[in-house]
Amino acid sequence: MNSQKVDNQLNLALDSTVQEREKTIDLNVGFDEASGLWELILKYSGDLSILEETYLASVTYLLNGYAIIRIQEEYIDELVQYPQIEFIEKPRGIYWGQGQELVDTCIYQVKRPPYTLTGKGILIAVIDSGIDYAHPEFLNPEGTTRIEVIWDQTIEGNPPVGYQRGTLYTKEQIDEALQQGNDRLSVVPSVDLSGHGTHVAGICAGNSGVAPESQIVIVKLGTPSKRSFPRTTELMEAVNFVTQFALERRMPIAINLSFGNNYGGHDGSSLLETYLNDIASIGRMVISCGSGNEGSTGRHYGGQLLEGENATIQLSISEYESSMNLQIWKSYADQFRVYVSSPSNVRVGPINQVLGTQRFRLGTTNLLLYFGEPAPYNRDQEIYIEWIPEGDYIDEGIWTIELEAERIVTGQYDMWLPVAEATGTRSRFLFTNEERTLTIPSTAEKVITVGAYNSELDALAPFSGRGYTRRNQIKPDISAPGVNILSASPGGGYSVRSGTSMATPFVTGASALLMEYGIINGNDPYLYGEKVKAYLLRGARELPVLESYPNQILGYGVLCLRDSIP
After folding, report:
1. d(Cα 441, Cα 424) in Å, to the nearest integer?
2. Mind listing the pLDDT tens digit for each residue in 64-119?
3. N or C terminus of the chain with fewer C-beta within 10 Å?
4. Nearest Cα to 383, choosing from 432, 350, 347?
């Protein structure tokens, strides 16, 4: 399949065998082998009911002309032909962004008079790995829950109205479960196995966190893939759900997203990012997203190719690497030839631009290569390479990618490997660029993109994802403490974690306090969305370790909420 109405990764997946896809990190994400169904993201206009009737497809309708469809693979070619369908995108795997703070972020100061801000009247939505709802951090003094609702996408049974996965648990059901003591899971069996979501929720909305009187909305993302990471389709449904929940309650909401992936142009053009931009303009809300932990992983390389020049990029594939892929993003106006060499110096190329999947074998490793075309939502070109082993593992050692300039207009190119959490190995570029290591969806324009820093030392956190985007938009927007953060842990205890996942909820909670100050307390009924971002950026504190602001590491500076209040 080679439709320009379909994103490159889906085109390549449909051109690959099931056996090839199963050996990759991402090509099989969204496909259920047992049923033969693909779960896909649609951008559409008009009526899709004919698809449900003709193909027995199931459609979950999201806001602003987006939808999630589940359809048999054999019907995708026909799906593309419908004029109502504007673009189709395959889901990606998303990965948790792991790795005296209230004083350092100037939040403690606004909890006292004359402000006395606590988050009262504001919803905080944590879309993550779930929550330990019995943890004291999320209980009222009398022992009832502060959680309004939990949508656990991993427990099939009673999904929210309009959705097709998971089970919804109400505040009343959670309180009933709490009364059962150790038998509570018989009433509400939702748990947080990794502890990530509990830790994040404790920072932004726990009783000792940033907004202790906020009302909490939890979505535990589904984990059906072989590596137990959720998909972007589940994330989009989660964002849609919490947005609708806030609109029904007529309450302001701050949404926390502490995860990301590397697949895409890192320029805000994927359907996930455009969807978040659209949603951010609905109702009274703020979306905060971590910049990811790719700053020091060596998973990005970029450069400038001049007319008549060649570029040689070396990629180290570690031992026991079962799957790997590479994206090369460039201007469509530039024309490159591509060569690939294996560790045993077997070389293929020049690989010219041909629409469709090209296959090569180097040693005991197969390469799938796809030259993409510009899409309705992205004017750049992607060259996608997938390594698939004949046996269990890719040939380890130094692989070489050569770019040969034919016609150059801009010459700029960027390369990304999957995020380190996706493979769990040390594969990387030998020579790397720390710039443009933001993960997606933190490159969406209207989210608040949060980097991490070490607040104990007022020092940089080397793991924190750095900007700018490929369109040179300033990202991250702001940074917050993300090193050795103590917060709630499943089982009623506390643990220390580091990462932009831990920095993001400081900004989410601070956004809730700003909306309380403006909307709930009557100081500014329009203090939400981009206005909250503007206030946070104006109050940001500049660290002396860097001279120029805004910059690619900390954005406009580090969070200082006291100075963000007019």
Report:
1. 21
2. 999 999 999 999 999 999 999 999 999 988 876 654 788 889 999 999 999 999 99
3. C
4. 350
- Average pLDDT for 525-539: 97
Confidence band for 501, pLDDT divided at 50, 70 and 90: very high
362-421 pLDDT, tens digit per residue, is 999 999 999 888 888 888 999 999 999 999 999 999 999 999 999 999 999 999 999 988
Asked about 132 being catalytic, the answer comes back as no
With 0-12 / 13-18 / 19 or more C-beta atoms within 10 angstroms meaning exposed / middle / buried, residue 544 is: exposed
> What is the per-residue DSSP string for 179-231?
HTGGGGGGT-----SSSHHHHHHHHHHSTTSS-TTSEEEEEEPP--STT---B
CB 395 within 8 Å of CB 324: no
Q: Which one of the listed residues 129, 501, 511, 564 is annotated catalytic?
A: 501
Decide: residue 296, CB within 10 A, 0-12 exposed, 13-18 middle, 19+ buried.
middle
Cβ count near 361 (within 10 Å): 13
Provide the whole-model pTM: 0.92
Write the DSSP assignment of 230-271 as a string of letters: -BHHHHHHHHHHHHHHHHHHT--EEEEE-EEB--S-SSS-SH
Collect all residues with Cβ–Cβ distance below 8 Å to 552 and sequence separation of at least 6. Answer: 435, 466, 467, 468
What pLDDT score does 99 carry? 45
Note if 135 is an active site residue.
no
What is the mean predicted confidence (pLDDT) over 326-331?
A: 95
User: Which one of the listed residues 128, 132, 334, 477 is annotated catalytic?
Assistant: 128
In sequence order, the 6+-apart residues with CB closer than 8 A to the CB of 142 are none
Length of the chain: 566
Active-site choice (129, 175, 196, 323): 196
Active site residue 128: yes
> Rounded to whole angstroms, how far apart are CA atoms 464 and 462?
6
Of 291, 225, 229, 288, residue with least CA distance to 262: 291
Q: What's the whole-number average pLDDT of the chain?
A: 93
- Interval 277-304 mean pLDDT: 95
